[in-house]
Structure formats: C-alpha cells, structure tokens
Write a structure and sequence with these properties.
Layout (H helix, E strand, L loop, with lengths): L1 E2 L8 E3 L4 E5 L7 E5 L6 E3 L6 E3 L2 E6 L4 E9 L7 E9 L2 E10 L2 E10 L1 E8 L8 E8 L2 E8 L5 E7 L7 E7 L7 E11 L6
Antiparallel strand pairs: 1-17, 2-7, 3-4, 4-17, 5-6, 7-16, 8-13, 8-17, 9-10, 9-16, 10-11, 11-12, 13-14, 14-15
Length: 199
C-alpha cells in the first residue's frame, strides 16, 4: 500500500468539515485531525424516512483492481458518532464502513446504499479508543470490506456489489449526527492493489 497522506492534490473533500488540521510526525507521515459538524451524516430513506448527504469524506479515485486503507482513532461518546472508509459513486450509490457508536458501545459495521440504505453492525467494545484500520478492495463486481484493531488479524465486515464499470472515489469519512465536537484523528490513508483473497 502507498500512503496518500493528506495531499489535497490527490484527494478532495466532499462536504469539507469545520476543521481539518494536519499534524506532521517527527518520523514522517503525520495525522489529520478532523472535527465533524453537528448533524453531519450519510443516509438514504430506509426506516428513518430522510436523506442525509452532509458527512465529511476525503476522496481519491478508486478504480477497479485497487484497495483503499484508512486508520483512525476517536473517542466515540455520542449516539451515531462514526468514522471509517467511504466508497462513493454518487449520492444514491455509496458504501461507508467503519466504527459507529450505537446501543451504548462501539460497533463495527457498514451501510450499503443503492437508492436505499441498509445497515449491519457487530459490537466491538474492546476497540474503544484504539487505532482501527479499515480496508476496502474493489475487484470485479464486488467490494470486500475488512477491518482490524491495531495489528490484530483482519476481520471480514462486508461483501457488497459495485458495478465494475462505475466511476468511484474512496477515502476516510466521519460524521456526528447527534452532537458537536466529534474529533477523529486519521493516522493513515493509503491505496494499493486489491486483495487477492475473496475473504
């Protein structure tokens, strides 16, 4: 995987956040600390009856045969605080995957949207306050989503369809649907070839 870092020539904001501060590291690389706007979210219709397309995502081109990997640390305190990776074709076709606060605990999950959103979750209370990495690989007609805490083994999160001819972009995202002040420290943003294994 090759680090993109926080180069705005390589990636562009969808809905720029109120604040995004680069903090260089002494050994190279560095982090991007993003403050999410209150009420920011990505969702379409299902169950809740509303469309939201106000979350923050830093997106780079995501062609077939490639993967994107994002690492982050955050204190998820409020309902629906969330961060991870977004893959986006347009406002009706997208996937977000990562960690979200729900039912009083951090949850590993994904929302897959093709006109309507669906949502899957699994509790990961031991991931609270730890560095999480989400990797999405695009191969053929599918996206394969994996995640892990720190250097632990990868966990399968989701296998979802994506038109192989679709023009897509991908990168880190965060949202704070219920509160102001969510800060997410993104520690890595990298791209490379898609994983060869199916899952």
């Amino acid at each position: 995987m090759e680090d993109i870092g926080w180069d705005t020539d390589a990636a562009r904001w969808l809905n720029p956040p109120p604040e995004a501060v680069c903090e260089p590291a002494a050994t190279g690389g560095g982090t991007l600390v993003v403050t999410a706007a209150e009420g920011s979210d990505f969702w379409r219709r299902t169950s809740y009856g509303f469309d939201r397309d106000t979350g923050h995502a830093l997106l780079t081109p995501f062609p077939a045969g490639s993967a994107v990997e994002v690492s982050f640390i955050a204190a998820f305190d409020a309902l629906y605080d969330q961060a991870g990776v977004m893959v986006r074709v347009d406002d009706r076709t997208w996937i977000k995957a990562g960690v979200e606060m729900s039912d009083g605990a951090p949850q590993l999950g994904a929302v897959v949207t093709r006109g309507w959103s669906d949502w899957s979750l699994a509790p990961v209370p031991s991931w609270a306050g730890r560095e999480v990495t989400v990797r999405v690989s695009r191969s053929g007609d599918a996206l394969t989503v994996r995640a892990r805490r720190e250097q632990e083994p990868w966990r399968m999160v989701r296998l979802a369809p994506l038109d192989p001819d679709a023009t897509a972009a991908a990168g880190p995202f965060c949202c704070a649907p219920q509160r102001a002040g969510l800060r997410v420290r993104f520690t890595r943003f990298a791209t490379g070839p898609a994983d060869t294994s199916l899952h």
